[in-house]
UniProtKB/TrEMBL annotation:
Keywords: Hydrolase, Plasmid. The lineage of its organism: Bacteria, Pseudomonadati, Pseudomonadota, Alphaproteobacteria, Rhodobacterales. Transmembrane segments: none annotated. GO terms for molecular function: hydrolase activity. Its EC number is 3.1.1.-. It comes from Celeribacter baekdonensis. This is Carboxylic ester hydrolase. The keyword Hydrolase applies. The keyword Hydrolase applies. It comes from the Bacteria.
Length: 256
């Protein structure tokens, strides 16, 4: 089946993202037969899966979508100093499911009461500079959407099952979700004279975007068609780009 035009994909993106978090719930609170959800939760997959590799990154394919989890984009410049600057890095965790990808330290999310399990099972780490990629099997030169999670800047993560990108990738686009620092590690100022432009979450996001710009072609994406989107706090994080206060080399489009 031919891939849908990028314009049609972008129009349906918001609808798909809003609908997908609830797909794993039935009226009794149990699982339903969503093969993407079963794959991500680590349950018995309804569709065949196979291991694969792109540019040295390993993943699996399920239902025509390739899934790559726990890709490292950065590290702390000063190990064991959670509020130090991020520096670019590479590598990948040996994981097969989103629930195995670490997120930054946080309390349990209140959203789970409404949206179901999100990241409550995920490990937590001060070095959770990871991103995840979903891409249509065999796709090339596809539009890319990088999604910034919400959570009031104190919770959330790119590995939340609410933000799984398989359904959108099946529409004909590459989807990337990422972690950025939250809570005290992201926002606590070291002193009153700290430069306000030295914003740790923004530095994390820029580092991740540079990884996407440099490597997304290896996953079937077009590095010149990157859309940055966000929900709640992730949406608010887009503001500095609108004001022209951040470099635009990594960024082509914004979506709200």
């Amino acid at each position: 089946m031919p891939l849908r035009p990028a314009r049609c994909v972008m129009r349906s993106a918001a609808r798909a993202f809003l609908a997908s978090p609830l797909r794993h719930l039935s009226s009794e609170g149990g699982s339903v037969s969503d093969p993407f959800d079963l794959h991500i939760q680590g349950g018995p997959a309804a569709l065949p899966q196979k291991d694969l590799s792109r540019a040295g990154v390993t993943g699996t394919t399920c239902g025509g979508v390739e899934c790559f989890y726990g890709i490292r984009y950065g590290r702390l410049s000063k190990p064991d100093t959670p509020r130090s600057a991020v520096t670019p890095a590479s590598g990948q965790l040996d994981v097969r499911h989103l629930t195995e990808v670490p997120v930054f330290p946080q309390l349990p999310s209140r959203l789970e009461a409404l949206m179901g399990p999100g990241i409550g099972e995920n490990p937590q780490s001060d070095e959770a500079f990871y991103l995840n990629v979903w891409t249509p099997e065999g796709g090339t030169d596809l539009p890319v959407m990088v999604f910034l999670h919400g959570g009031a800047w104190v919770s959330g993560g790119g590995a939340a099952r609410w933000y799984r990108g398989a359904a959108l990738a099946a529409e004909g686009m590459v989807v990337v979700t990422l972690n950025y620092r939250i809570g005290p590690n992201g926002h606590l100022e070291e002193d009153a004279d700290q430069d306000p432009s030295d914003h740790r979450p923004m530095g994390d996001i820029l580092t991740a975007l540079q990884w996407v710009k440099d490597h997304i072609c290896d996953f079937g994406g077009d590095a010149n068609r990157i859309t940055l989107a966000g929900q709640s706090a992730g949406h608010g994080t887009l503001g500095p780009w609108l004001g022209g206060r951040k470099p635009k080399a990594c960024l082509i489009r914004l979506r709200f």
